[in-house]
Amino acid sequence: MNRNHLRQPRTLTGLVAAAVVALALVPMSTASAQQHRPPQPAGPDRPATQAALEDLVASGTPGAIARVDLGRRSWYGTAGVADLERPRPRTPADHFRIGSITKTFTAVTLLKLEAEGSLSLDDSVEKWLPGVFVHSDYDGRSITLRQLLNHTSGVFDILKDQDFVSRYAGAAFLEHRYDSWTPDRLVKIATSHPPLFEPGDGWRYSNTDYLLAGMVIEAATGQSYADVVESRLLRPLHLDETVVPGFSPTLPEPHARAYSRLFVDSPEAPVYDVTEFNPSIAGAAGEIISTTHDLNRFFGALFGRRILPPHQQDELLTGVDTGRGYEYGLGVRTYPLTCGGTVWGHDGDIFGSVTYAVSTEDGSHVLSLNANDNWNDDEPARNVIKADFCRSSAHQGRP
Predict the structure, then answer these.
(1) Best CA proximity match to 290, nearest among 232, 331, 359, 234
(2) pLDDT top residue among 278 and 29
(3) Catalytic residue, candidates 74, 100, 353, 368
(4) Which of 88-97, 265-274, 339-348, 378-387 has the weakest average pLDDT?
(5) Is 100 one of the annotated active-site residues of the chain?
(6) CA 20 to 30 Å from 36, out of 119, 165, 213, 307?
(7) Domain 98-376, CATH 3.40.190.10 — does that match?
(8) Where is the signal peptide (predicted)?
C-alpha cells in the first residue's frame, strides 16, 4: 500500500550496525543466473548509489538492496542486515512485499484487457460492479475505470477508516495478522464513508480504487485476480520470482525479515517482526511479492514500450496534477529529480517493507530498491534514486 498511509515513526538509533556488500556492473545472462549470482566486491561504476544505500542503513533501516539495469549491464548493491536476531547480509535474490507497486501491475492488466476488447477504461464502475457502493452519495454510473486508476474517483480510502487501521496498530497486529479479507468486504467498509469529492473534480490517493479495479478484472474475465495477472504479465514476461500470494502469509525463500513499529508514533515504540501476515488486507492495491530483478524486468519492458500498444502507453503516461509536486498517470507516477529531468515508476509501503521501482521514460535505465522496515523517512530512500539517476545525468547525458 502507499507510503502516505502506512507511515511509521521515522527514528531508530543504535539498532543495527551496517554490513555492506555490493556488486559490480556485470553482463546480463539468463534471469536465473542474474537472480542468484554471488556477491562480488564493489566496483567503481556506481559508488554514489552504494553510498546512498549505506546512508539509508545509517539512518535507521536494518537492511537495504538495490539493482540498476542499463541495457545489458546490471549492478547490485546491498547494505545492512537481513535479520536483527541473527545478523546476515541481505542478498540480491531476496523476495519482498512490494506494497503499492502492485497498483502498476493492476493498472497494466486492465490496460491489457482493454487492448483485448474485454472492457474500456471509460466504462463505469456500475457496469462491472453493480451496487458495489454502500453510501448513498456514491453514483457508480459516474465513476469510470480510468478514474479508479488515476485516483480521481473521489472514493474513500480504506486506510483512512480508523477502526480498520486500529486492528493493525501496535500489539493488535499480533491478534489480527492472519485475518482474511475479501475485496468486497474492504470496499464495503471504505464506502460506508461518503465520497471525498465528485468524480473527476479532484485527486486523492485511495487504495480502495485499486481494490475495485481488481474486482473489475475478475468480473470482466471470470477468473481470479491472481490468474489474470499471471497470464497477462508474469508468465509472458518471465517474472518467475514474482508472486500474487492471495491469502498466503509467507514469503518465498530467500528473504529478509521485515520490521515495523505498526503505526505507533513514538521512537520508544517496540519493533515488531512482521514478516508473516495475510496479504489479503492489501489485495490488488498492494499484495504482490517480487525481487529487484523482476521489478526491473517489468518496468524496463513497460517503459521500453514492450507491453502496451502505443496509444495505451500514452494513456499510461497521461498524468494528473496531484498538487503535491508530481503527476499520477495510470498506476505510475513521476519523480522529479533535483538535477533536472523526471523518472517514472511507483513506490510501495506495507508492513515491514518499503520499495521503489523507477525508470527513465524509454526504459533504458531502471532502478529498484527495498528496505526491510517502514519507519524511516522517505528522503534516505529517495536519495538512492537521486544518486543513481543524477549520476547518469552528469556522466551519460540523460536524466
Answers:
(1) 234
(2) 278
(3) 100
(4) 265-274
(5) yes
(6) 307
(7) no
(8) 1-33
